[in-house]
Structure formats: C-alpha cells, structure tokens
Amino acid sequence: MHSGETGPVFIGIDVGTSSVKAVMGAPGGARLDAYSGHHDTDRPSPGAALQNPAAWMHHVEAALHRFAAHPRAGDVVAIGITSQVNTHLPTDALGMPLHPALTWQDTRAAAQAARLDAAIDPDAKTRALGAPIPIDASHALARMAWFAETAPGMWSEAVHLMLPKDHIIARLTGEVVTDPLSSVGLVGTDLRYAGAVLALIDEAADRLPPLRDPLDIVGRVRDGLPFAGVPVANGTMDAWASMFGLGVAADGEAMYLSGTSEVLGLISSDRPGAPGIITFPDWRGITLHAGPTQSGGASLGWVARLLGRDIGDLSSLAGAAHITATSPLFLPHLEGERAPLWDASSRGAFAGLTLSTGPAEMVAAVMEGVAFAARLAIEAIEQSGARRITALRHGGGGARSDIWCGIRADALGRRLDRVAAPEAGAMGALVMAGVASGEMPDLAQAARSLVVTDRSFEPDPSASALAEDRFAAFRALYEGVKPVTERLRHGRRGD
Amino acid sequence: MTYTLGVDIGTYQTKGVLVDDKGRVVAVARRDHEMIVPRPGWAEHRAEEDWWGDFVQVTRDLLAGSGIDPTEIACVATSAIGPCMLPVDGQGRPLMNGVLYGVDTRAEAEITELTDRIGEETILATCGNALTSQSVGPKILWLKRNHPELFDRTEAIFTSTSFLTFRLTGEKVIDHYTAANFSPLYDVDRQDWTDALASDIIALDKLPRLMWSSEIAGTVTPEAAAETGLAPGTPVTCGTIDAAAEAVSVGLTRPGDMMMMYGSTIFIIQAVSGRVTDPRLWYAPWLFEGEHASMAGLATSGTLTHWFRDQFARELPRETAFPDLAREAADTPAGANGILFLPYFSGERTPIHDPRAKGTFFGLNLTHTRGDMYRALLEGIAHGTAHVIETYGEIGQAPTRVLAVGGGTQNAIWLQATSDIGKVPQILREKSIGASYGNAFLAACAAGLAERGDIDRWNPVTQQVEPDPGAALEGQHDLFKRLYLQTKDIMADLS
User: Fold this and answer.
1) Residue of B nearest to A469 (CA)
2) Does the beta-carbon distance from A481 to B495 stay under 8 Å?
3) What ipTM score was computed for the predicted complex, to two decimals?
4) Looking at residue A345, what is its pLDDT?
5) Domain range enclosing A411
6) Is A252 among the domain residues?
7) Is the bond preceding residue A214 a cis peptide, omega within 30 degrees?
8) Domain assignment present for A2
9) Do both B324 and B225 map to the same domain?
10) What pTM was estimated for this model as a whole?
11) CATH of the domain at A475
C-alpha cells in the first residue's frame, strides 16, 4: 500500500534499558513499521547490573532485516541511534566488547566514584562542567577506575569505553564516535571534554571516543548488513531523543515521558535552575531542564502483582473508580524518589484506606500518585526554566492507557497531547536522522512533520480543582512520613 | 445429676449450652437470625421472634438433644447483644423492633444535643462514659421525639436480656453492667438510675429494676414453662451483655485479669479494683456487687483479614485462603520487612478515639510480597492492641493476666505478635464456646453449684503464649504511634 508513495524514509533505533525499539517512518507522521526486542539485565551479585552487548546488536540487526523487507526500504535515507546512557562497556579498537556492559543501575563503582569526587575541588569541577554534577557510581571515570582495579588485565587491553549507542554505531559503520549530550559529567558548557575532570584518570582522554555533533552523519552502514551504504546519524542519549520523539523542540514545549519510570523535561532558554532539576548545556539554542522520577509503570506492575490482576486490566478497573475527596492516597516511592526530591530512602505508602476501599480505588490511587510525583517534577522544571509550559506532550508505554491519561490530566491540571507512536526514543532518533540527512531543515520542523499526536486529554474542571487539594495532601503525606522513614531506616541499620 | 442452662443471643446467631455441675458440656444448640437494617445506620432485631423465639427453640433443642429431665436444671442464665433499646407496653409487649447497640447510629442528633447541653465532663464524671452510639439514653430521646405515639404507650424500656427475663419470670430487671450504658441515666458512683443530668428523657420508674448478674431475678412461670419445656419454678438470673459473659467463660475473676477478645474487633474487659476515670477507657460496675470493670476496643480488627483476603487473595480457594495467607505471612520475619500498618480502617476507638483516622500501609518497596503485607496487617492490629495495653499501664492498671479468646486466636501469627508487641503473656483455655458457656457458669454460681475459682476446673488453661524478647519489633511500636501522629491531620482531611 506504500509502494505508490515517494519521498524520504528514516529509521530510528533506541537501545533502552529493557528492550531495543526501532521505527521506520516518513514525513506526515507515517509510522511504516516498528520492531521491539527484549534483553535481560544480569544481577549476579549485590549492586551488579550487567547487559550483554551482543543481545543489543542481535535486536538491531533483526530490526534492520525486518525493515529491509518493507516495500519502501529503498527510500530509507538515514538511520539515527539513541540509547540508555551511564551504561558503559570497554571495547577493542574496532568497538568489539571485552566485558559485559555495566548499566546505569550498577552501583559497584561507588567507592571509586567517591574517591574521584573527593579528589577534585568542587569549585573547579563546577567551573569545568558548568554545574555541580557529582561523580557517582555510574560516571564514566568511576567505571574506568573500577575496571582498572577489578579487571586490570582486560582493562590494559581496552582501547575505548563506549556507551551503547557508540557501540552500535561502531558495529554498523566501523566509526568510533560519541556525542557531548550523552557524555554526562565529562563535558563543559562548550560541549567539549572537560580536561580538569578527565585529568583525574590517566589515559581517560584517550579511551573516550571523539565527540561529534548529534546531528552529524558519522558513517555509512557497512557492507554485509541490511541498508548497506545508508548514512548513520550520531544521535544522542535517550532523554534528549525522547523529547524530539514527542515532538518537543522549541521554547515552552515540554515532555512527559512515561515508562518503567518517568521523565519530565522543558525547553527554556532561561536557566535560573531549580533544586533537583538537571539543566543541560545549551545545544543549538535548546536548553533542556529535565527531571527523572523513580515511579511510573513499575508502580502499576507492583500493584497488579499484589492484586493478582493482569496489568492490562488495571485501566478498566481504575476507570470504574471515581476519585473523590475521600479516596486513598498513594505515595509511589517504592524505590525511593529521584527528581525533584532525590530521596533514595523514601518508601511507598498507601494511606487513607477504609473498609470500602477496593481494587478499583487502589489502582486509581496508584495512577494518581504517579501523576502527583510527575507534578512535583513539572513544577520544578517550570521553576528551573522560569516559564510556564505552553504545550505538554505525553508519550511512552505508560501513556497508552486513556484512563491513566485522563487521571494525569486532572492530577496535573493541564492538557496532555499524547503522541501516537509509543516508542518515543526511537522516534527521536528518527527525527534526528531526518535533520542529519539534510532532508529536514531543523529539529522543530522535523518534529512537526514526523511526530503526530493521537489524542488530547483536557483536565476536568471539578476534578482538577479537587486535585489541587489532593496534591497538597500528597505533599503533606511525604513530609509527614519523612521522619518515620528516617527512623525506620536507622532502626533497621542496627538489625 | 444437676445441670445449668446458658443461652447467648448474638448479632447473627443464638447459641445455647447445657452443662453439668462439673462444667462438662452436655448439649449445644444454635439458631440463626438476621440483623435488620431498615436504613443506613439503623440496626434492629425482632424481640419476639429473634430473641424470645430463638430462646424457646434453642432450649427445646437442648432438652430434646440431651434427653435430660427439665427439673434437673438448677438455674438458667442469659446474655445478649447489648445494650438494646426496646420500648414495651404495660403487658411487656414490644412496641417496635429492638434497637441494637453501638452499630445503630440513629440518635446522633440526640447525642450531640445532650452532650452540648449537659457537658462532656459532667457526663464522664457521673456516667463514667461519654455519650456514643452505644448509649441508650439518646435512643430513648430519639423515640420520644420521632415516635411520640409509641413513647406515650411505653411502660418500660428493656434491654435484650430484660425482655428474655421478663418473658421467663415476669420480672422487669437489668444488670448494672448493662445499665452503665444507659448514659446519661445511670450514675456509676451511686450505682442507680438518675435524672439529674437530663430529666426530659424518661421517667425513671419506667426503667427496669437494677440487679447484679450473679443474682436470681425470679423463676420460670407456668406460661414460660409451657412454651420452653423448662420446669416451672426454675431460677433465672438477670443476665448481662455477651462480652461480659464471654469474659466469665475464660476466667476473668480478679483485678488485673484482662479478657482479650479476638473477633471482628478486638474487645477488652479488664477487672479493676475501683472506678476508672480515664476518658480513653470505658467503665462499668462488674457482674458481681463490689467489683468493677474497665473496657476498651479497637474499631475493626478481624474484619481487616477479610478485607485483605478480598483484595489481595482473590485467586485462593475461599476455604483455604486464611491458612494459605498465614503460611505466606509465616515466611516473612517479624517486622514484616519494614512495612508499618495502621489498622484504622473504620477510624479508631481506644485509645486515640479518632473517628477520622484511616488505614495505612507504609514503608512499601518493589520487592514486598503479599505475605509481607499480611504480616504487617496482623502486626498493625497487634500494635493497636499494645497501645491499649499501654493505656492501662499509664493509669496504673497494667494487666497481670491476659485471657485470650475468640476466633482470631487460631491465627498464630496474630496471637504471637500481640504478645511480642504488647509484651504480655496470653492464656488460652480448653473451651472456646463463648458467652453461652459463661452464662452456664454464672447460673451455677447463682445456684450455689460452683464458686468463682471453679472456672479453672470447668475450663482449664491449655496454652500460654509467651512474648518473644528477640522479636525485633521494639522500635517499630514507637514508629507505629509516630506514623499516626504524623499523618492524622491529612487523614482527617480525607474524611
């Protein structure tokens, strides 16, 4: 049915934390085909969280083979790549892995990180990076120190330390590159490597791939693979790519990405900053103020397991509940909270339960609680960017439920425009490929052309008025349980 | 051989036992009835059918089942749900359905009016208890206001046992323990009716004659003998409320003895050496002249296990759900892996008396299981119970012996958690027949067949649950109380 159409076609690939997703699309929002493949995280010891790079590449090749069979495969003009970041693998000169990848969830380099963080003057670090970014267990330099100490033989042979997207690009094109937006904690506001930080580790500068702009074409697909000869765009980290994949590219536009956890982001050229919010360096006139929360689909999966329900049935269940002033409240801190609270020790709470509370009320409370956690982050990014959001795009797997979207619109008191394609990261890589190929003039126009929304959710006036009170109660609940959490933790330390 | 007959009228069931003079059960009979709810907040029984009709049928079944000669029955004692409010005419005929105890909340307006008019402190000083839905005085005022035509024909106000005793003997009597619930019409210090606080409710000569439950009220009339099969002239005691009879059945004998009833709620009766004036605890003269009792109760307890099963264990077969859940909870260590539970699903009674309190699960993380949550629930009820035990300690009335009874004692984790957190041993006895057995013992005492201490032979101790000092719950109890205080205002706002 597409064979009669003409014009450029693009591919976007996203190596995520739990799956590889790929989309094939064209101007006008046509989503021609999509691929999704799951990969595992190995947790062989406390703090360890490893992935096998071969599993990523397996899915990338499977996606390309699938797309190569599409009638419009011949019109593909560029491929873009994005991935999870703060996930690192040591490779040889050709980009072949020498060790499983340590994902961003792997905390074993905490001691090395603390040592490195203490070794640099905080003011000097802030000057070098443009922000007081901590060197934590997921920082590239901490990973280098960890490999050097725990696997010195392997590490002495390693030529590069790569992110997943760098690795995929190397495997597809033979080129070794990375990009400055993905190189969190390594680059300054000039988007170049920060020498003062890299100096903490010998040869760090040599092992990090050269920086190229995310919109550069960095190579062509090598022979022997589907789409051989097609240009490959550098792309960038998943949070940025997802923003473009949700069609967010201009000042005042914001994203609400819902997956296992959630990410809120706003573009604003004003940058006063706000506690708990990450303000990225300005890139091509885009300044992203972002906050990842810790709750999202994971909270829903948790309550589905406890209630003995299929997660797919939860929306209709929640739809039967009507949130009122007496409905229970859910604090979704099942794994602590990230932005804007950054309170890893906080824990979840179901409060306000009565004998008439049933599964519908509990599921609705979980959906509302996740939305309230996002609202805290949304208010913080508006503060960080010193402006109101003019358009809020919503996407990701957690946005597929109409019921949940409705609860979110009420809880936030804002209209949500939901993006049709669920794979936001891959769509973003596709948008970037569109610009990198020269077919699209800039990101804003590419996003407008390639990303379409399928539905808007308006807040119900009375429900969002109620949500004002309930959001205040949600905040009070967090503040109220905080001293108990702290003592619960201290009490357990002595166990 | 000599026997005694004990009959107890419950909310849903009447139970009778025929017992020999050694306390051995010769026959048991039961009959079910319904609680009538004509409108929300109202709760009634039909006095003629549900009370007298059940008594007649159960007695006939016991006589037929045992084959004993009715003249061998030395004494009859009754207990029933109470206090009830039943207006009767000059012939002792019911003018309406019997209005049940605290589950009937029809007199809220009268409670407020009388409390405002008299003053809560004056009521507490004279009556020992604040006016609540348990109080009979406001219900009589409700009758006078809403059914003046019935009130005009009212010659006496009966409680449930008054009605049974009247039908058996022609005597209009009530025991002091029940009468203490007739606030504001009963003076606990003078142990007599009073109209000093409110003279406009009813003329005092329309209230039954006050007696002690250990006393004989009269003997079975020829008419009653013909109906029931009992021998004319059989002595009948004046009866009492079911919980008091239950306490007798498990050996509540001397000051410091505490009955802990594990039912749909936890209900506590403690024998005390004199009047208790703490507003957190209820007070009444005990069943024997010169003795005193102090009462306490949680708002909902065993009911929570049903709520939990209905939400979280839908897939378990109904008949094995509770043992299955108990096994899962047993796999979780004491402390429920850090979950705290506030059991205030229907508000709370003793000691916080907060009708707007709510239930809470707190400390939740992604790894928690159903067994963790069920264990937390049982421990939360135990924390609530420990809070009551502490309250007795604060007024110098710490229990010296705790007598556990009720269906919930079969839940080993619940029982043990109560001892661990409450720091008290608990005694369990051989027979758990309940109030009807206590009545049979009271009848034996009244007939001179047994002495108070004989309950240890009638119903010997079979098990003692010891607190486990190693159970790591010490700090958690303080956190339980702290969690309530930290969130109570938020929960009140959810009402």
Assistant:
1) B493
2) no
3) 0.90
4) 87
5) 262-422+455-494
6) no
7) no
8) no
9) no
10) 0.90
11) 3.30.420.40
